[in-house]
Amino acid sequence: MKRTPFIAMMVLLFSLFTGFAHAEPATININTADIETLASLNGIGQSKAEAIVAYRDANGPFQSRNDLTNVKGIGERTVEKNAERLTVE
Predict the structure, then answer these.
(1) What is the CATH architecture of 28-87?
(2) Residues of the signal sequence (predicted)?
């Protein structure tokens, strides 16, 4: 009895599952992201996401991701935790 197709299928499934587990999260442009997208960031909930959008609307686009610390309730630690996911374009 040949086991090659079964083994090949198992290897393929294993590689698919491990690939998904190590996938990088998408980057988020803080100048264009909506509230729902911003709320997906680590340490940013609905109210902080709303504060980001309100700040952006009142003050114009962010020049750097560190400008997020100008938003009330967002500190340097929150920006550091999300640094890999944040972009400004």
Answers:
(1) Orthogonal Bundle (1.10)
(2) 1-23
What are the tens digits of pLDDT across the range 32-60? 999 999 999 999 999 999 999 999 999 99
The rounded distance, in Å, linking the Cα atoms of 3 and 53 is 56
Q: In this structure, what are the phi and psi dihedrals at residue 87, rounded to the nearest 5 degrees?
A: -140, 155
Mean per-residue pLDDT of the chain: 88
Domain boundaries, the chain: 28-87
Paired sense of beta strands 86-87 and 28-29, if any:
parallel
Distance between CA atoms of 33 and 52, rounded to whole angstroms? 10
DSSP class per residue in 9-63: HHHHHHHHHHHHHTPPPPPEETTT--HHHHHTSTT--HHHHHHHHHHHHHH---S
